[in-house]
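Tutorial, part two.
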Amino acid sequence: MCPRHAKFWKQVAVMAATLMLLLALAPLAEACPQCQKALAGSNGGVGGRIVQGYMWSILFMLSMPFVLLGSMSTYFYMLVRRARREQAAAQLATA
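Running the prediction step on this input gives:
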């Protein structure tokens, strides 16, 4: 086997071993203490409000890229529209 292929298979073996280790340790992973407490008390009391707060904060964070992209796109669209309108007015004035 050429050295280049040996290096490739060594990388594949390391990635496979890493993946197997992560999969073996996945059941041991737990949520952060605050999340765990909030979910444990989610029977409508204070814990339920904390879970609802987490939900809204996640939705807010997920929506931010779309809000920013939409705002910038709208701003640039309005700039182009204004420039075209001014260009058309200038052409009418010179004609």
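The mean pLDDT is 81. In part three we will examine how such features are distributed along the chain.
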